[in-house]
């Protein structure tokens, strides 16, 4: 499922990266089109049909963080520095053998500008280090690096030590629906399947989501860093949306009635929570093109 930088997320589309895109996907779309549009499609030439089924010639994904030379950037100079944070890539598909050449794609974090440089000359960084010779020191670059590093650390936690996130809040990519993401509260983790049980904030439904398949982001300022330091971050009580279903509080002059506690006296909100497997648990997270 791919989103495109210059288009709305609603214009995302499913693609098969490693083999021909199945023509049946196109047929499903045709069934939903008006009759006039279907007639227009039928007039397409055989060349057009071949283009629709064309395989990817290049498909690269972000691999690591570096600092790259950018002498023409505003503010760059020999004294202020010409190195800026950027990303290098690794190929999933490379049918034209770009990665057999010396100069390879480099994308700067600040504006996604793409240049070609030799990877052997680029140093991998894992944190903001102002002592790097030639680094352009500015708060924007520092914040970009810190944001990227924290995002990467969050993904490692989700994939390698997911059990520590029980009790935390996450943002989950929604493969189907009218919103791009939904926020949820992690209430359990299955070590055998790798799935989280999460409660959707909006509709109070339980979903099963697998971070190996669906993109997730840890929410909360400082949560990722606290987990990395081995600190407990789930001790504080959290306000639940279920509080919206609590009955009215007693007035000061009213005397509280005695109620015998029984195992069936669960909060009314609990009956509103439904359990279902989210459709997004069977799909992969989006890639950025």
Account of the protein in words:
This protein is of the alpha+beta class and 289 residues long. 18% of the residues lie in helices and 24% in strands. It has helices at residues 23-31, 35-42, 46-52, 139-160, 223-228, and strands at 2-3, 58-69, 83-94, 103-108, 114-118, 123-124, 169-173, 181-189, 196-200, 205-209, 216-218, 274-275, 287-288. The strands form 3 sheets. A 6-stranded mixed β-sheet has the order 11-7-8-9-10-12. Strand 4 (103-108) and strand 5 (114-118) form a beta hairpin. The chain is globular. The termini are close together.
What are the key terms here?
13 strands, 6-stranded mixed sheet, globular, single chain, 289 residues, alpha+beta, 5-stranded antiparallel sheet
Topology, element by element:
Layout: E1 2-3, H1 23-31, H2 35-42, H3 46-52, E2 58-69, E3 83-94, E4 103-108, E5 114-118, E6 123-124, H4 139-160, E7 169-173, E8 181-189, E9 196-200, E10 205-209, E11 216-218, H5 223-228, E12 274-275, E13 287-288
Parallel strand pairs: 1-13, 10-12
Antiparallel strand pairs: 2-3, 2-6, 3-4, 4-5, 7-8, 7-11, 8-9, 9-10
Work out the radius of gyration.
25 Å
**What is the end-to-end distance?**
10 Å
Determine the number of helices (DSSP H or I, runs of at least 4 residues).
5
Number of strands: 13
Strand order of the largest sheet: 11-7-8-9-10-12
Beta-strand content bin: 15-25%
Shape: globular
């Amino acid at each position: 499922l791919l989103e495109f930088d210059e288009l709305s997320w609603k214009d995302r589309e499913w693609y098969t990266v490693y083999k021909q895109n199945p023509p049946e996907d196109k047929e499903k779309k045709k069934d939903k089109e008006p009759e006039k549009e279907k007639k227009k499609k039928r007039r397409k030439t055989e060349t057009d049909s071949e283009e629709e089924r064309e395989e990817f010639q290049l498909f690269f994904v972000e691999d690591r963080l570096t600092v790259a030379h950018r002498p023409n950037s505003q503010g760059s100079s020999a004294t202020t520095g010409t190195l800026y944070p950027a990303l290098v890539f690794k190929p999933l598909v490379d049918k034209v053998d770009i990665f057999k050449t010396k100069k390879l794609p480099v994308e700067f974090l600040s504006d996604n500008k793409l240049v070609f440089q030799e990877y052997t000359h680029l140093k991998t960084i894992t944190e903001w280090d102002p002592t790097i010779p030639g680094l352009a020191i500015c708060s924007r670059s520092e914040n970009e690096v810190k944001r990227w590093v924290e995002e990467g650390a969050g993904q490692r936690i989700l994939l390698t030590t997911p059990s520590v996130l029980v009790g935390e809040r996450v943002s989950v990519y929604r493969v189907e629906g009218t919103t791009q993401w939904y926020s949820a509260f992690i209430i359990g983790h299955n070590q055998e399947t790798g799935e989280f049980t999460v409660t959707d904030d909006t509709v109070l439904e339980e979903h099963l989501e697998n971070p190996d398949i669906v993109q997730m982001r840890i929410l909360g300022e400082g949560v990722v860093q606290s987990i990395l330091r081995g600190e407990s971050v789930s001790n504080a009580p959290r306000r639940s949306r279920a509080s919206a279903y609590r009955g009215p509080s007693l007035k000061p002059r009213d005397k509280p009635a005695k109620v015998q506690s029984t195992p069936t006296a669960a909060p009314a909100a609990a009956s509103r929570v439904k359990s279902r497997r989210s459709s997004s648990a069977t799909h992969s997270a989006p890639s950025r093109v």
